[in-house]
Records
---
Amino acid sequence: MGIAVSTKNDVFLLNTKSTSYGFGIDDRGLVRHVYWGRKLQCVEELELPEFTEVSTNDPVFQITPEEFPVHGGLRYKEHCLKAIFADGTREIVYQYCGYDVEKGEDWEELILHLRDDHYEFFVDLHYKLYPEYDLMERSVEVRNQTEAPIQIEKLHSAQFHIPYENLNFSNVHGHWGAEHQRFVQKVSYGKIVIENRRGISSHNHNPYFVLDRDATETEGEVYFGALRITGNFSGVVEQTAYGETLVQMGLNDHDCLLELQPGESLTAPAILCGYSSSGFETMSHNLHRFALDHIMRKGLRPVLYNSWEATEFHVNSRDQIKLAQKASELGAELFVLDDGWFGERHSIQNGLGDWYVNEGKFPNGLEELVDAVKGLGMMFGIWVEPEMVNPKAQLYQQHPDWIYHYETRVSDTSRIQYVLNVTKPEVRDFIYQMLDNLLTRYDIDYIKWDANRPISQTGPQRDIWYKHIQTVYQIVTDLKKKHPNVLFEACASGGGRIDYGILGIFDDFWTSDNTDAYDRLFIQDAYSRIYPIKGMRAWVTDCPNFLSGRVIPLTFRYHSAMMGSLGVGCNILKFTQEEVELSQRMIQQYKEIRPIIQEGTFYRLENPSPNDYFLYEYLKEDQGVIFVFLPQSKVGHRGTTVRLRGLEEQGRYTLHTSKGDVTKSGSYLMYHGLEVKLSGDYASAVVRFEKEP
Ligand code: GLA
């Protein structure tokens, strides 16, 4: 396993449990890609093909698969790196100059060192292998050791070569209230570009690629990579004229210029990538397991109650205490006070930036609510939007130069707010101090950090697209050092911030403001392909749903939200006794199955029925849970067959169905399957099962 180097020291084979990735260095010092796919046994068998030139119009640089194509020479394809040297030279000519290997407990890293032919400019290509997870993390570091600044005009983290044409490319599209809408499109000649230019990563597309050869959940080849960045990114997929598909991803070069001063270096966001020969499920499992073990904060996420949909901006101590009492009666473990508690925040018009407790709403201070929540045995959480300011806020009156702006232009608002230039040290310090004070003064366990508008009018600095999010990461990282028990939720106008960059910085992630339990099935399914279930915060909210107008039974709403980290956002003071009791039962059941949901292995099961069943399974060691949803019965209604996955063929499993216990072998449940029939509309069931000892 791990890194194998050929005897001639010119070919590298990077092996994980079941995959291999290979490249070599040719006699010109070019790093040339040779292989990505199922595991190979012997590095010595890999050879670098001879350089070929189709014609003088198809130069070798254009045809040859390179690990990290740079801008320069006879290369016209997408490049990963373009630098402008102080004398105006805009091309890079690199030479390979050796490698290093580093090892950790469950990883091995190969670092290839490249240097420019003329300038003291260095490029290190990093390949960090996690063999047990069948994953590799690729990143690149550039270093300026010249005496003058170097401008980096483009920096993509890696290029991948897939030796096929006509692949399927999938990602998500969407917008506020409709995040994670999965799409699949055929790759043909030309380029597919997905990107974000707004400074907030994930409403519209998400920074990952999935390319497959007509794969299913359990069969077929899938190549994938997820970029670890929450700001602007771009990804390009290109089927070339030479029988292969290229894909690369990294920082978006749109309006971006990064300057490296002498002695400075820059590491591009890593791409976590892998190959599966057994469909999408393996991809999801490998990513989920890695995220749980290596990226996310440990521990189960609490069942939360959030008052936003119940009270919006009309918060006050008395009503929030009543909500907290009711939430505690239902079984919630965390009470989150959302927007509206600070400054003159009575609507979106004012308040952002003025982070003092509004005395009219909290005449006895915030302590009254915090104490009440703590007295109920719950954790206390609070909403903030630290990167923003309203034009009417005192903060803006005092510091009009703290926002991104151009001196000669009228600053544009969105949701009646400006974006603070957090890359200014005084602004960064203000935000850190404000949050540190809040966390020090009050017994707060949870921060919901929102960001409700995109960045614009960035001023003369062209590096803020990168530096803004790095500063946010840094503030949260520093706050966590000082307040290690506080959980941070990333929210950005709903699901605007979920990616593999933020996954290790924040702890909880708001999936979408769309809380319609039916819409959520699609959103959650797409989310689950790349992101771990523990990160997927899902609330039960009131009906008719504020967005869809749909009325869905409370049980279905609970079941849909129980597929992730459960939260409740209803006006629970209006609950009938029946709704209170149902909620208590559901929350209790969720707590019992929570380790299986949040830390188990997740399966998107096949639905063989013409009826639109949604079938999911979670499995953790000997315990499992099945979710069955039937949003609508169709004419000639039939049931479905639930074929489980991941069981031991010989094991005996007892399923606790509504009609009583059923015990079957693993092979029966996986190959024959269990007949299930729901009827009516918005019908749903949760079935627990366990393996006999
Ligand atoms: C955003 C969030 C909501 C809520 C509001 C408050 O829209 O997604 O959950 O916090 O802001 O203004």
---
Amino acid sequence: MKIIMLGAPGAGKGTQAKKIAEKYGIPHISTGDIFRANIKGGTELGMKAKSYMDQGQLVPDEVTIGMLLDRISQADCENGYVLDGFPRTIPQAESLTASLKERGEKMDYAIDVDVPDEAIVTRMGGRRACLGCGATYHIVFNSTKVEGICDACGQELVLRDDDKPETVQKRLTVYHDQTQPLIDYYKNEGILHTVDGTQDLNEVFKDIVNILGV
Ligand code: AP5
Ligand code: MG
């Protein structure tokens, strides 16, 4: 099963992708998490990505596309995967479609987690992220057992550098300009499904499971 998560920054793509990955036993691949792991590790890729991410801009397609195509060609992706944060531009979507086509494959589902901008801005300030395993929490809506510590891996949680209100605004503008057109792209491919992302996160997940089947 090959799934793409679409949605604005903070819509809950990461939260839902993690639950999908656990339920269906497929890898959760987040380009944002890959970049953040590289920044933490001080790699060249991380240094390149950081300057864009801190400004709420997209990392250039030349860097991102190769990295993602490489990741999905690894052995653990044989039975599918859930993509979170990729594709984010029409050229990224076209590269993905072309690369899969070469192997006689295609994406099965594109799930748009729909949340209006006003709700996003209030959510982001309360988000806490684990740089160790990529888990995402919220101080009110999805809290950890021990404050500030990841339930899954025990690392300390952080407020992401790009979650400052002015950077969130910039990311929303970039989303509307460059990423929202993908909704029509996947509608035309006949695989688009929309879920109401303003519901409680377990209700959102129920709607997704209804789409994917048990
Ligand atoms: P990325 O890490 O992908 O960030 P993003 O798309 O901005 O999305 P977020 O991770 O902010 O939000 P999310 O939808 O995953 O929400 P979450 O589940 O955490 O990318 C970061 C940057 O990397 C980009 O800006 C760009 O620079 C670069 N990048 C990455 N991919 C790229 C690409 N393909 N091309 C170019 N550049 C790329 O939820 C948000 C919060 O809300 C959490 O606190 C959560 O607990 C809470 N929450 C979730 N669901 C609910 C709910 N239903 N009700 C209440 N609260 C909820
Ligand atoms: Mg995320």
